[in-house]
Amino acid sequence: MNAIKLETYKQKYLDFLESRHTAVLNFVDAEGKPFSSTAPFVKKDNTFYVYISEVAEHFQLMKTSEIVDVIMLADQADSKNPFATERVRYACRPAFLGNDGLEDIFELFNELYNEKMMTLFRGLDFALFELKPFEGRYVVGFGLAFDLTVDGSTFKHVVINKEKENS
Fold it and tell me: Is the CATH code 2.30.110.10 the one for domain 3-166?
């Protein structure tokens, strides 16, 4: 893939990421069973933040997991082929941050969601978690997968050598 095309897909990825507001969170529980949930998020400095209630099933998993897989998907209605749905996945290290301080992060939530609602949540049992990505992959079609960092500073086309695989 030439550099011009790679830059085109990199920009497509960056635009896609900026248009996402909800993430699918994937965990493995203490018994080894998979568990998935969703949460709205904000992004700052190549890190994602989610604000979730202690009542949420994924709250304890978020507190105890060493790795959380985060997926953001295109709307199914916008996908021409369900086998090639545009998506990005990151493996992240979670950290519990609580509910105090970090006003810059809460201001992002206020701007993106609803300041009155966020003020209400801050008086309840919600807590902020940081999700620090350490690897990611963006898929935008058949043969169009890219290993990347959140900011796109690393953006490598994934190519499988079928000849080598079949020998």
Answer: yes
162 touches 35 (CB < 8 A): no
Calculated CA dihedral for residues 84, 16, 58, 68, nearest 10 degrees = 80
Is the distance from CB of 60 to CB of 53 less than 8 angstroms? Answer: no
What tens digit of pLDDT does each residue of 69-97 get? 999 999 887 777 888 899 999 999 999 99
Buried b (16+ CB within 10 A) or exposed e, 112-130: eeeeeebeebeeeebbbbb
Q: Which two tokens stand for residue 83?
A: 């086998």
Q: What is the pLDDT of residues 10-34, one digit of tens each?
A: 999 999 999 999 999 999 999 999 9
Count Cα neighbours of 78 within 13 Å in the Cβ-side half-sphere. 8
- Dist CA 104 CA 93 (whole Å): 21
Cα separation, 28 vs 115, in Å, equals 33
- Model pTM? 0.89
Query: What is the reported pLDDT for 166?
Result: 47
The dihedral sign for the CA sequence 45, 90, 40, 94: negative
